[in-house]
Specification:
about 200 residues, alpha+beta, three-stranded antiparallel β-sheet, two-stranded antiparallel sheet, 5 helices, about 45% helix, globular
């Protein structure tokens, strides 16, 4: 849980004193509970909200940085990734750990591309080799009505409600909520398997 400290603001003899609560997130457990969890809950309540989708993609993607920082030695010894030449290599930093997660679940590459395109607008390097739906521009993630003719058969609720979608080739769009849920489940499974406290 995030650490909280009481802080106050008072003017006393010409000096300011602070009063209130200072919140600090300094562990991956706190990051999961205070950032990723609320992002997921808020998006599920508003599945058409593009801002919430971007927030959720960013927090799900960066969970890897937090976990890697806490478990670097164990992760380096136990995780591998497949490089662009198809060779299997050991993880050695946050980026290669993200590549290892992508190897376990290709939806993680979609989350990474959505998060990075939201941050940078347009990605210079495409990772389409890992997933055909990878975003290359922030505009590839859209809020649109789904249903008849939008997305894959069976995607979204019947009747065409507004949803955040990741545009795909040939109009074969993917529902963001399904991608996010898949990556969420990957983090939960990895945490259970490796004893990470989330």
């Amino acid at each position: 849980m995030a650490r909280q400290h009481k802080v106050g603001i008072h003017l006393f003899c010409g000096r300011l004193r602070l009063e209130g609560t200072l919140q600090k997130i300094d562990t991956y457990t706190a990051y999961w509970r205070e950032i990723v969890g609320p992002d997921m809950r808020e998006f599920r309540q508003s599945p058409a909200d593009l801002r919430l989708a971007f927030h959720l993609a960013i927090s799900l993607f960066h969970m890897g940085d937090w976990v890697y920082g806490a478990h670097k030695t164990t992760i380096d010894a136990n995780f591998t990734y497949v490089d662009s030449n198809g060779a299997t290599k050991p993880v050695h930093d946050e980026k290669t750990f993200a590549n290892a997660i992508r190897t376990l679940n290709s939806d993680f590459e979609l989350i990474r591309s959505i998060a990075n395109s939201a941050k940078h607008l347009q990605l210079k390097k495409s990772s389409k080799a890992y997933h055909t739906h990878t975003a290359s521009h922030a505009a590839n993630t859209v809020s649109q009505p789904t249903g008849f003719g939008q997305g894959s058969f069976g995607q979204g609720p019947y009747g065409g409600t507004q949803r955040v979608m990741l545009e795909g080739p040939g109009g074969n769009d993917l529902e963001f909520q399904s991608i996010a849920a898949s990556v969420w489940q990957t983090w939960e499974s990895l945490a259970q398997k490796h004893g990470w406290q989330i």
